[in-house]
Amino acid sequence: MKKGKCILMCAGEYHPCAIKKAPDDFVIAVDGGLKYLMKDGPEPDFLLGDFDSAPPECDALIETYRKKGDRHFLRLPVEKDETDTLAAVKLGYEMGYREFEIYGGMGKRLDHTMANIQVLVWLSKRGAGGWLLDGETSVTVIGPGMFFLPESFAGTVSLFALEEELFDVSIRGLKYNLSHATIRNDFPIGCSNETTENRSEKAAITIGRGTGLLILTKDLINRHH
Fold first, then answer.
1. In Å, what is the CA distance from 167 to each residue of 175, 214, 215?
2. Where are the beta strands (DSSP E) in the chain?
3. What angle separates helix 84-94 from helix 110-125, to the nearest 10 degrees?
4. Which of 48, 96, 178, 225 is the most buried (most CB within 10 A)?
5. What is the model's pLDDT at position 225?
6. SS3 221
7. pLDDT tens digits along 10-34
8. Cα separation, 64 vs 47, whole angstroms
9. pTM, to two decimals
């Protein structure tokens, strides 16, 4: 298992933010996501995709990586069963990475966003962790157990059932708490919870059984300070 994380830059909407690449991290440019890395960095370690969404200004760099060989480049067919993002995640997983950050994976097309949520489910089922990130919103999949929210986070917290039901759900340390509740996929009771200014305990979500989609949206108006 690799110590670092695998960072993916996809071709969806991207709000420039400081992507921190540690020495043990591995950066994959997924198809047209290369254009964002060319502008804002960091430099990719690997290029992957069918490159149908890559603009012409990426052509020279794509050719440079192609010449480096299969340790740095993989061209996928346009017609295939899996998305470019899933192929990139599988590559990182096979390399030994178990923590993934996916940028440019939301917005533009809803079907692509949904496909990337399914990529998070793929990771969760294999004991790996993944986040869809855009600078304002962070999305992950959580299963049975306790999940603590970052203490520095202030904003909206939403939890949705990815299966028919989430069982034995408890939420503490937020504006609206739950105790051993059931969350169904046809009633959004977990939408738009909030952090509070005075936290007497760590905000945490516990799930007894099932798989949930957790969405954290930063408080852009900074109402807590």
1. 21, 15, 18
2. 6-9, 26-30, 46-49, 73-75, 99-103, 129-133, 137-142, 145-148, 155-161, 165-172, 178-184, 193-194, 204-207, 212-218
3. 20
4. 48
5. 37
6. coil
7. 988 888 777 889 999 999 999 989 9
8. 10
9. 0.92
The full length of the chain comes to 225
On whether the 6-135 domain is CATH 3.10.20.90, my answer is no
Q: Is the pLDDT of residue 141 over 80?
A: yes
Extract the tokens encoding 215. Answer: 């969405």
Mean pLDDT of the chain: 92
DSSP 200: S
pLDDT value for 172: 95
Hey, where are the domains in the chain?
A: 6-135, 142-218
Q: Which of 9, 22, 25 is nearest to 97 (CA)?
A: 25
The domain over range 142-218 is classified in CATH as 2.60.120.320: yes
